[in-house]
Amino acid sequence: MNFGEAISQVMSELKRPDKATTVKLALNMALSQLSMANAFPRDIVETTYAVPVNEQSDYMLSIPLTTFPGFRRFKYLRGSNDNKYLEKRSPDKVFTREGHEQFGSYYVAGANIQIKLRIPATTLLVGYYGKPAYLSANADTNWMLDDFPTVVLALAISLAFQSIGQEKDATAWLRISTVNARALGLDLVEAA
Fold first, then answer.
1. Cβ pair 68, 126 in contact under 8 A
2. Per-residue b or e along 144-182, where b marks 16 or more CB atoms closer than 10 Å to that residue's CB
3. Cα 76 from Cα 9, distance rounded (Å)
4. Measured at the alpha carbon of residue 78, what is the angle toward residues 54 and 96, in degrees to the nearest 5?
């Protein structure tokens, strides 16, 4: 199902031709909410990061998150010459109680990812969950519109009804979306 078909489906339930912009926003919000609340394997972006030549002998790297378009959160990070994945740590757990740095770890701080490698690397293997692209053209699509359109459409209808103040209809459609999501979710979501 493409974006134009999804708009038509939601519009037919809303029965408000003056709310096309609201429906488009509701569909994008539904896709975003579903994506952000779950760990879908289809949302994982896999890439390599080439460590700048002047940093290839360093154990500590600081990389802007903008390097990873649509970044939401990391699934894994690993130096290409290391056989172990880096462990995610909170910034206050990077040092041991004795004050020693814990190499083989990473954390996000502000607009950067701070990496402490076990072994200097020339490239990093990176897997991260990406945000869904904003749909605007009728031909645009998202994998969720193909794999579980009933969940997306019901949630978008709920959001659209909510935006025009029809809380009773919004609540009913939210329930439908939730029941459908639960029924489908076990096959679609991985353990995060």
1. yes
2. bbeebeebbbbbbbbbbbbbeebeebbeebbebbeebbe
3. 38
4. 90
Give CA 65 to chain center in angstroms.
14
Query: Which string of b and e fits 68-103 if b means at least 16 CB within 10 Å?
Result: beebbebbebbbeebeebbeebeeeebeeeeeeeee
Q: What is the pLDDT along the chain (192 residues), one digit of tens a residue?
A: 999 999 999 999 999 999 999 999 999 999 999 999 888 899 999 999 999 999 999 999 999 999 999 999 999 999 999 999 999 988 777 777 787 778 999 999 999 999 999 999 999 999 999 999 999 999 999 999 999 999 999 999 999 999 999 999 999 999 999 888 887 764 555 544
Identity at 94, one-letter amino acid code:
V
**Measuring CA to CA, how many Å separate 183 from each of 34, 106, 146, 155, 179?**
14, 35, 16, 15, 6
Residue 122 structure tokens: 């020339």
- Global pTM? 0.83
Contact 27, 152 (CB under 8 A): yes
**Spatial separation of the C-alpha atoms in residues 121 and 55, rounded to whole Å:** 9
User: Rounded to whole angstroms, how far apart are CA atoms 160 and 4?
Assistant: 16
